[in-house]
Amino acid sequence: MTVRVLLADDQEIVRTGLTIILNTQPGIEVVGGAGDGRQAVELARRLRPDVCLFDIRMPGMDGIEATRALAGPTVPEPLAVVVITTFDLDEYVYAALRAGARGFLLKEAGPDLLSQAVHAAANGDALIAPSVTTRLLKAFADADPATPRQQPIEALTDREEQVLVAVARGRTNQEIADELYITLSTVKSHVTSLMTKLGVRNRVEVAMWAYETNRGRRHW
């Protein structure tokens, strides 16, 4: 199955470069491009792509607002949005994750990582680049305990705690299955159970919960 991708970046040269890279990857097709968030939202609603790749800083409606419009908590059928950024631990990345983005990539990500990220997003996996997962989540967990995270509605099992830490480290379902010697379907069941118990919407929020409650930091 071909994964249909929508790109949004205010720099045409970046859009062109990403389009070329993605269109040469197996099973990926770029179906549209936008120069600002408003146009990206309009295109996304019309084209219903499998994955949206949005830059954060764009004129008019930025990538965070666009993400919230397409993947926020009030959206009945949210799209998979991934933010792409130069990343320097800035608050916009965190805000984008809070707005519903499944994760983020660095703009210098190579073709292989970009391809893996798109396929992972289409499959429902989180797109937290492993090289920056700890830095991002720990920095914000340390910087601001704004509203304390609620505790699980039901205690986590030992296995769920293990899966929680793996998700916080940016591992995909397959990598978790390999590390814990369990089946892929078992991992998916644990992740679903975690989201239910933690009252979160996706894997990125699972990871943020882990760091904000010290679970993630205890294992580094």
From TrEMBL:
Query: Which keywords are on file for this protein?
Result: DNA-binding, Phosphoprotein, Transcription, Transcription regulation
Coiled-coil spans are: none
Q: Would you say which domain of life the source belongs to?
A: Bacteria
Residues that bear 4-aspartylphosphate: D55
Which intervals hold domain HTH luxR-type? Answer: 149-214
Response regulatory domain ranges (all copies): 4-122
- List, in alphabetical order, the Gene Ontology terms for molecular function in this entry: DNA binding
Q: Establish whether keyword DNA-binding is in the entry.
A: yes
Any Pfam family from its record, for instance, is Response_reg
InterPro entries under this entry?
CheY-like_superfamily, NreC/VraR/RcsB-like_REC, Sig_transdc_resp-reg_C-effctor, Sig_transdc_resp-reg_receiver, Tscrpt_reg_LuxR_C, WalR-like
Single Gene Ontology BP term? Answer: phosphorelay signal transduction system
- The protein's name is Response regulator transcription factor
